[in-house]
Design brief:
Low-confidence stretches: none
Shape: globular
Structural class: alpha/beta
Mean pLDDT: 93
Helix content: 25-40%
Largest sheet: 6 strands, mixed
Distance between the termini: 41 Å
Order of helices and strands: EHEHEEHEEEHHEHEHEEEHEEHE
Strand content: 25-35%
Length: about 280
C-alpha cells in the first residue's frame, strides 16, 4: 500500500495558533505542520523548499497591515497563490480553577493585544505583555503550570492545551477578521481568470508620481484594497508601494502593468489569484 505524501505547511507559531487553524481549514487534515518562531523563518523555509507552502497573516480588520511581512515576501522571492479570511475570536485563558481577579499579567502576540485594548483598559489590574505568539503562551502556561498568568488566544488553543476560558471574545470589535495568504516558491498556475493581485510598484522620483500611478490604476478599473509605502533604502526619496487590487478585466490589468513598467517605474507581481472576501 502506497501512503499519500503529506503536504508540508509552514506557519508562524505553535499548534493551536490561528495560523494552525487556517492551515487545517484550508488544506485539510492530511498535512504536516512546521511551526517557526518568526515570519522570516517561515519564508526562508519555503524559499529553501524545506516545506511546500506557508500560511502567513498579512492584515487584520482592526489592527491593519503587518507591513514587515510584505517585505519578507519580497526578499525571499515568494509567490501568493491564494488568500483566506478567518474570523478572529480572542479569549483570556489560564490554568483551570483560577478567578479573573487572580490574573495579573496577560501575554500574547502584539497584534492580538492591540485588538483587545478596550478589555485591558477595563481591567487595569491585568498587565498586557507582548510575546511571540498567541498559542505559544497557552502552551507555556500549560506545561509550566504558571498561575496568575493568562494567554490571549483562540478557543482552539485553550482546548489544545487544557486551559480554562476566563473571558470570551474580548476583541474590541466583534466583527474581527484576519486575512491570511498562501505562499509558495514557484509561480502558481491556474486556468481561472484572477480577480485579485498583490503587487510591488516602485515609482520614479518625479513630480506627481503617485498621482499618476493611481490614475493609471483607476483608468484600468483596478480597485485598490490595500496600499502601503516603504522608502527605497538605496535611492533616497524614492518609494515602493505594496498594493492589493481587485481585477475586473485581466486585459486591462495587464495593460496597466505594462504602462506603469514603461512609463513610471518597476512592477513586481507577487501573485494573481481569486478574491475570497
Amino acid at each position: 500500500m502506497i501512503l499519500e505524501k503529506k503536504l508540508k505547511v509552514a506557519i508562524q507559531g505553535v499548534l493551536g495558533s490561528f495560523h494552525h487553524q487556517v492551515a487545517q481549514q484550508y488544506f485539510g487534515e492530511n498535512i504536516e505542520v512546521f511551526g517557526y518562531n518568526t515570519f522570516e523563518e517561515v519564508a526562508k523555509n519555503v524559499e529553501n523548499q524545506v516545506v511546500d507552502v506557508a500560511v502567513m497573516a498579512i492584515e487584520n480588520s482592526i489592527a491593519g497591515a503587518i507591513l514587515p511581512n510584505y517585505d519578507i515576501i519580497d526578499r525571499h522571492e515568494l509567490f501568493v497563490s491564494d488568500e483566506y479570511y478567518l474570523p478572529i475570536s480572542h479569549n483570556l485563558m489560564a490554568l483551570p480553577g483560577q478567578e479573573l481577579s487572580a490574573i495579573t499579567e496577560a501575554r500574547s502576540h502584539p497584534m492580538a493585544l492591540l485588538q483587545c485594548k478596550k478589555f485591558f483598559a477595563e481591567h487595569p489590574s491585568i498587565n498586557p505583555i507582548d510575546d511571540v505568539d498567541t498559542a505559544y503562551v497557552a502552551k507555556i502556561i500549560s506545561e509550566q503550570k504558571i498561575k496568575g498568568l493568562a494567554a490571549v488566544a483562540s478557543p482552539k488553543a485553550a482546548e489544545f492545551y487544557g486551559l480554562e476560558l476566563l473571558a470570551e471574545n474580548i476583541q474590541t470589535v466583534k466583527n474581527n477578521f484576519t486575512r491570511f495568504i498562501i505562499l509558495q516558491k514557484d509561480k502558481p498556475v491556474s486556468d481561472a481568470a484572477p480577480t485579485k493581485a498583490s503587487l510591488k510598484i516602485t515609482i520614479k522620483n518625479q513630480k506627481g508620481g503617485l498621482a499618476k500611478l493611481l490614475t493609471v490604476l483607476s483608468d484600468n478599473d483596478l480597485d485598490l484594497t490595500k496600499i502601503q509605502s516603504i522608502p527605497v533604502m538605496s535611492k533616497p526619496w524614492e518609494y515602493s508601494f505594496f498594493i492589493d487590487t481587485l481585477i475586473s478585466d485581466v486585459e486591462k490589468f495587464n495593460h496597466a502593468m505594462d504602462l506603469i513598467a514603461s512609463e513610471y517605474g518597476s512592477v513586481k507581481i507577487f501573485g494573481t489569484y481569486q478574491s475570497r472576501k
